[in-house]
Amino acid sequence: MATRTKVRIAQEPEADALLSRDPLALLLGMLLDQQFPMERAFAGPALIAERVGTPDRLDAAMLADYDAEALVEVFRGPPAVHRYPGSMAERVQAVCRVVADDYDGDASALWTTASTGRELHARLLALPGYGDQKARIFVALLGKQLKVRPDGWREAAGAYGDDGSRRSVADVRDPGTLQEVRAFKQEAKAAKKAAAASPKARATTKKSTKPRSAS
Fold it and tell me: Are 62 and 42 contained in the same domain?
């Protein structure tokens, strides 16, 4: 029986189907979502799976033990899995090693065995390449789209868990919401840039960088 696609982040049927059936693919897609278009980042796991010869799923132990130089070539493509093939291939292997060693190769155990949102967030935060923001977004993605909702998951997700928001990949369900999320990110980036360029911000920066007098 065909797998029912639950997520539509990559905007490519095969890539989204892999994200929906393979927890490791989803976890790695979130990892790759950095300095790269969202949909291309989440299409990356399907490219990796195809190129290492396991198109139906990703194997954490296999990827963790994969020849490092060969994996970089897998990332290079074309098309490229990520704009930074060397560093991101290294991070993928590091995450896969944690999944293989600490979760018996089952990425879903990160969230299915977490009793609270805080615990889930802490587990994600402990992964290589996962900072606080990325961990919160992934908690929101699990809660909103996969119905993984341990106690306190919205609090752990922060604003990314808000109903009706268009803040992150957790809110992408179709081409329309993808564009809404992208617009939100662009507006936030512009606002941050404008704030940094304000006279008050420049004065504060100048004051903070002024050399102290010798005591």
Answer: yes
Nearest to 175 by CA among 21, 11, 62, 52: 11
Integer angstrom CA distances of residue 125 from 38, 75, 98, 156, 175:
20, 24, 12, 11, 29
The answer to whether position 67 is within a domain reads: yes
**Do 44 and 71 lie in a common domain?**
yes
Question: One-letter amino acid identity for 56?
Answer: D
d(CA 15, CA 100): 23
> Tokens 């090693």 — which residue?
97
Domain interval for residue 118: 13-174
pLDDT by residue, tens only, the chain of 215 residues: 344 558 999 999 999 999 999 999 999 999 999 999 999 999 999 999 999 999 999 999 999 999 999 999 999 999 999 999 999 999 999 999 999 999 999 999 999 999 999 999 999 999 999 999 999 999 999 999 999 999 999 999 999 999 999 999 999 999 999 999 999 989 988 888 888 887 765 555 555 554 443 33
Report the domain count for the chain: 2
In this structure, the answer to whether residues 56 and 143 fall within a common structural domain is yes
154: its two tokens: 């919205």
